[in-house]
Amino acid sequence: MTTVAAPPDKPLTYAATGVNIAAGERAVKLFESMMQRTYGPRVLGCHGGFAGMFRLDYNEKLFQRNYREPVLVACTDGVGTKVKLAAELGIYTTVGIDCVAMSVNDVIVQGAEPLFFLDYLGLHANKPRQTAALVEGVARGCEMAGCALIGGECAEMPEVYGEGDFDLVGFAVGVVPLKRAIDPMRVEAGDVVIGLASSGIHSNGFTLVRAIIRKRGLSLSNVFAPLGARSLGEILLSPTRIYARSIVRLLGRYKVKRVVSGMAHITGGGLPGNVQRVLPGKLDARIDTRSWVVPPIFSFLQDQGRIEDDEMFGVFNMGVGLVLIVRPSFANSVLQQLNHLGEDAFVMGKISPGSGRVRLE
Fold it and tell me: At residue 50, does pLDDT exceed 90?
């Protein structure tokens, strides 16, 4: 015979299980104005609704242009284990930028303009000011990308996330006219490969980074001579560069000619894994690895972890955050425009007949 335990002396509450609804409401109030900073005339409805609304159709009183044969481009990505470093250092204002960058940089390589963004924040406990700092980073990233932060979710789950842990994921939607969408099948032999410098490690490979730190007993607060005046932790938390405004402006200057035949966001898999995704099967990308300066953080990590070159290039961006494949007659013009737009752009290779491989030379 089974017996039923006596009920507890005090009634259970949600707060007693570790979920504080009142703290969540305070956090929402703190970042309401942050979200509204990112709004444009296409955003409809009020903050706090069940879903965000974004107007896509044309109204000449509000918008300067229409999207002819619009194609929506959507993607999602997260910050990965970089959030562990942010939690360890107690720095919560930068990983939100990473969250935006990882998705909008994927949107723009399709030729699309980012329209709006949503975030998901999983928490052990909702500490309103800490949560607001995370969302502030997301809002800043959206401003940098030129898109609206129209919604999100803060989930307080102490049974899933340990004390101090959190996760940060984003969802981006963009639009591109059908005739302007980037089609990798347009890549031809003779096209020029242009790289845009990264701001550092960005948001990939941090599980390996953290393994190196543990193995070598490195302190995140220390300043190491090869890395300059900033601490190791500050360098590792440098936000992922957002290329959206530069690429949207560049593509907008070519109304008829399609001078960019392919683009790749250099994330997990490095240059070989990501450039290969935009190569037709009968072409190779030949990359001159001497054509740009690799930031010192990569050499530092390679030395500390005794990592082989192939592993480094297969895990990290090695100083190249975005790659464009451009028609040769327009390469110099594109290069000059990108540098004028504030990017550190450089020619790093060419497309040649082959078998769909990326050859690092």
Answer: no
